[in-house]
Amino acid sequence: MENYKNILAINFGGIGDEIFFLPSLISLKKEYPNSKITLALEPRSKSVKDLTDIIDDLFLIDIKGENKYFELLKLIHLAQKGHFDLVISSGGNKLISMLLFLTGIKERYGYNTGILSQKLLTQAIKLNKNQYACAMYHDLVTPITKHKTELPEINIPQQEKIPNSVLIHPGVSKMSVNKGMTKTVTPDIWADTVKLLLEKGKHVILAGGPDDKEVIESILKKVDGLDNFENYYGKTKSLKDLGILIGKAEKFICSDSAPLHVGIAMKTQTYAIFGPTDDKRLIPQKPFVKAIKAMDKCPIKPCLWEHRQTTCDTLDCLKISAQDIVNCVLG
Q1: 210: exposed, middle or buried (C-beta count within 10 Å: 0-12, 13-18, 19+)?
Q2: N or C: which terminus of the chain carries fewer CB neighbours within 10 A?
Q3: What phi and psi values does residue 146 have, to the nearest 5 degrees?
Q4: pLDDT, tens digit (0-9, with 9 covering 90-100), for 239-276
């Protein structure tokens, strides 16, 4: 097996996708401890580097912007002058193998998307979407490392727990909202969840990021000032700060969003709202994480991305009450 010194990894997507990708990079670093790993990703996800020292450098490639073709040419240029001896890339687009070929990097690994990938890649890996996303990405590096890292690992030590605490992070990314993807319950349901948890004697902490301003404000109108409630919105200045707070909570409730994957990495007891997306692909089968789902009978659930690109109007899959959430968390 080659002793790779300079590795380029390409993974476009949100911060959650980059956290999913971490186990693959960790396994590579374990196999090649003296290697330098550069990750090409979208600018919106660059904060993943705050969570790990596995990544040595970043290429910020804005493929969702107006100049995406220029950005891809920039990536090819950076790859060509970077003297990489291995490149791996996620994604099921048939042109990815052509992109990797144009970089001139000798060893190229990506998913098998047909004849082109089989011709242009060193090895075209079968894309198996019917598994936890970390495992799906890790398939890319299985041919070149004997290590298997199952879960994301981040550089935040275990924290002393706040007694009797439940942390709630209700938000989802503004991008998903703007694209018509509803993936969580309403602010009213979140507010009622806070109240019920307080009635049960829990110390409830509310957190959120810049994208969550509106939902946080709606919740605070109903719960701010209640005893044993702590508003932590605006106090976490980075993804790492949020990870530390998640680590301090005894239990963590969130939506299908990036904080969920930080909770998994911290191994905090985590409960996540799932409606139109597939929990089996987005959370591991581990006792410290559980999906909270409606008991609806939608025939195409989970529908998002497989059957639809936006969520439907009825949203039966998100008819989850505050009592349902509390029963799951405290049951």
Answers
A1: exposed
A2: C
A3: -85, -10
A4: 999 999 999 999 999 999 999 999 999 999 999 999 99
Tokens at residue 59, please?
A: 């290429």
- What would the DSSP string read from start to end of 181-210? ---S--HHHHHHHHHHHHHTT-EEEE---G
Question: Looking at domain 165-330, which of 3.40.50.2000, 3.40.50.300, 3.10.20.30, 3.40.47.10 is its CATH number?
Answer: 3.40.50.2000
Strand (E) or helix (H) holding 96: helix 96-102
Q: What is the mean pLDDT of residues 1-28?
A: 94
Angstrom distances, CA of residue 67 to CA of 60, 81, 133, 200: 13, 21, 29, 53
**What are residue 59's phi and psi, to 5 degrees?**
-110, 115
Q: DSSP 3-state assignment of 246?
A: helix
* Order of all β-strands in the sheet with 203-206: 229-231, 203-206, 165-169, 251-254, 269-274, 289-293
Q: So what CATH class is 6-144?
A: alpha beta
Quickly count: other Cβ atoms within 10 Å of residue 265's Cβ. Answer: 22
Please report, as a single letter, which amino acid is at residue 158: Q
